[in-house]
Amino acid sequence: xxxxxxxxxxxxxxxxxxxxxxxxxxxxxxxxxxxxxxxxxxxxxxxxxxxxxxxxxxxxxxxxxxxxxxxxxxxxxxxxxxxxxxxxxxxxxxxxxxxxxxxxxxxxxxxxxxxxxxxxxxxxxxxxxxxxxxxxxxxxxxxxxxxxxxxxxxxxxxxxxxxxxxxxxxxxxxxxxxxxxxxxxxxxxxxxxxxxxxxxxxxxxxxxxxxxxxxxxxxxxxxxxxxxxxxxxxxxxxxxxxxxxxxxxxxxxxxxxxxxxxxxxxxxxxxxxxxxxxxxxxxxxxxxxxxxxxxxxxxxxxxxxxxxxxxxxxxxxxxxxxxxxxxxxxxxxxxxxxxxxxxxxxxxxxxxxxxxxxxxxxxxxxxxxxxxxxxxxxxxxxxxxxxxxxxxxxxxxxxxxxxxxxxxxxxxxxxxxxxxxxxxxxxxxxxxxxxxxxxxxxxxxxxxxxxxxxxxxxxxxxxxxxxxxxxxxxxxxxxxxxxxxxxxxxxxxxxxxxxxxxxxxxxxxxxxxxxxxxxxx
Length: 521
Prior knowledge:
Layout: E1 2-8, H1 31-47, E2 51-56, H2 65-72, H3 80-88, E3 92-94, H4 104-111, E4 117-118, E5 122-124, E6 136-141, E7 144-152, H5 156-159, E8 168-170, H6 173-185, E9 190-196, H7 218-222, E10 229-231, E11 238-243, E12 246-251, E13 257-264, H8 273-276, E14 281-286, H9 294-299, H10 301-311, E15 314-317, E16 322-323, H11 327-333, H12 336-349, E17 353-357, E18 365-366, E19 369-371, H13 372-378, E20 384-391, H14 392-403, E21 406-409, E22 412-415, E23 430-433, E24 435-440, E25 449-454, E26 464-470, H15 471-474, H16 481-484, E27 486-494, H17 495-505, E28 517-520
Parallel strand pairs: 1-2, 2-3, 3-4, 7-9, 9-10, 10-12, 17-26, 24-28
Antiparallel strand pairs: 1-13, 5-8, 6-7, 11-12, 13-14, 15-19, 16-18, 17-23, 20-26, 20-27, 21-22, 24-25
Organism: Fructobacillus durionis
Protein name: 2',3'-cyclic-nucleotide 2'-phosphodiesterase / 3'-nucleotidase
Keywords: Hydrolase, Nucleotide-binding, Signal
């Protein structure tokens, strides 16, 4: 008998074949495409007598305007986070880091009746037990037993607002797995780990790919004796392969692929050699080649209509168009839309300076008639603001980190490899307001920045300046300098709320792009 482990991860509430921002555009991904993919693969596997386990590997309830709608507007309809996975037949579900974005109470309400949730390392600090879900589950078929452990990256507290994770302790997943795997080997034929985290090292060479903070401990989990298969996620990478005899998968982002791990449950028997020679095996199946499952399109049609009506409502009017025609160009030259975001952050905090990122290349900016679809398409995260005090020297260091986003190739400005491998990190590059500055890309990293003035005054490396950033950046994520600054004040309202309030207060607003940033090459 063969074990087939099918998985999705990081679907981020992209259920339809759409990015939701471009309402009518058909995209090559989506949970409902994955549903069709898994349904057919599962049917074939079961017809052959295989043992099939389907895993949803986290970051399921947040990430698109659909997730925001269910969390903040149509909470009574958030039951779909339970019913759709049940109908899709997931045997196991794992918590992702973004599951905590809307708070512990919301998360508990969604999963309170879900027997499939596996959570071995996010514990209630009082009881030292999983705060929801169970640590592992053993599945049985025709005398064969498969144990699955659910784990979440321990790095969540470094990003998440404390009020969203009260009373929770994120235990090291590697330590938890080292305790559980030997125990489960005695109870099951094989042990599978489903981990919402990725790999900090190259799987073949072992070369370090990113700073080893404990965010992505897949390499360590892979090395634990007794692990039969490893499902990963979080990094949005497309990974497949067999390493040290253990098949691994990471199926990307927005359900763009389904992971399929295959292992032999009859190892050591008289099974025909040709059947076992190709096992274990790993592959990713592109969901773009599959139609959306008609059952779910029909079932959720009323909800989709309500969502679209809500998203297409015009919520405010601007005096000028601020659409982002080409986001990479805006990162190099600045843009009125970026200036607007920084202007709102400065207004809300009273800081000297502000920094914000263009998170991805799909950001639409704003038309003169701003819809809620545009608002949430630009800012899908429930981030809040933090006012941080930095010395002038620290400020320059932070800007040097940003300058490292770029590199020169044959005289052309390109993105540095560190920002697109092992995964794209455009969201870690900031554009600033309140100062005039330059990057000289002909110079070595760390020596590229010139600060010409700050709010019209000479730059002083000894002076203290306050900077408005979102709560993610304030933790040092993407730019460690911010974690070294002193927090002046934290703000509770989300940036989308602050932005909407500002635009309503300044109906017909015109923002002229201030040309305060230049790249020399």
